[in-house]
Amino acid sequence: MNFFNLKTYFKFNTLLAMYSDTLNISYFRKDAAFDTLYPPHIRELSQMHWTALDIALEASNFLAKTGGRVLDIGSGVGKFCIAAGVYHPATEFFGIEQRKELFNHAKTAQEEVGVENVHFTYGNLTELNYDNYDHFYFYNSFYENIEPGSRIDYSVRTSFELYNHYTEFIHDMLSSRPAGTRLVTFHAPDKQIPASYQLVDNSYSRVLKMWVKE
User: Could you tell me if 147 and 48 are in contact, meaning their C-beta atoms sit under 8 angstroms apart?
Assistant: First the structure.
């Protein structure tokens, strides 16, 4: 068991003490247990596309603030938001997802776990009012536009043009956020991050990065 798995293990035992019978937290023992919330074809995508529990813990520890509102940009089946919401009950976690099937799986998983400080929206990331959120989590949701082998399915259009469009949109949106905004990126190129964000920490061979806007 490595260092980060130990952290998740101890966090799981803390959750047992915290939540008692109010939440179904048996899913938080390990990723394989959590992934049983989803049907087999969704579980098969987990290693490449869904945030692992260790990563969710590390990222949410940096982003969570009492009364804060954290947005997962491209929330998939909701694994980050659900885990983060259980780890940090005093923070509200939101996810935006453009695939209706994934959105539906996220809602179903949330209901099964029983976490209430998590909210999912079905739609495109360009349609949100980002003033409603304080901090952001971004697991490179655009990569499938330039790497066909990594795409989830064929339910949405992908292209190099969309990759550039979304990259510019996120860059501009992050630039407009106030000083003190926190951002966690996972497998995201630094060119998507405005120069006004200071890298303050990183882990997992520098693919998980913590930023603060100056």
Answer: no
- Residue 121 burial (10 A CB sphere; 0-12, 13-18, 19+): middle
Q: Is 152 helix (H, G, I), strand (E, B) or coil?
A: coil
Task: List beta partners, residue 96.
Answer: 73, 121
Q: Which domain holds residue 118?
A: 3-213
CATH code (residue 34): 3.40.50.150
Question: DSSP 3-state assignment of 26?
Answer: helix
Which range among 85-89, 140-144, 183-187 shows the weakest confidence by mean pLDDT? 140-144
Are 81 and 118 spatial neighbours (Cβ–Cβ below 8 Å)?
yes
DSSP 8-state secondary structure symbol assigned to residue 188: -
pLDDT digits 0-9 by tens, 108-127 = 999 999 999 999 999 999 99
Q: Which of 173, 213, 177 is nearest to 196 (CA)?
A: 213
Q: Which helix (H) or strand (E) covers residue 198, if one does? A: strand 197-203
Beta strands in 87-196 (DSSP E): 92-97, 118-122, 135-139, 182-186
Please count the structural domains in the chain: 1
Using the predicted structure, report yes or no on whether residue 172 has a pLDDT greater than 50.
yes
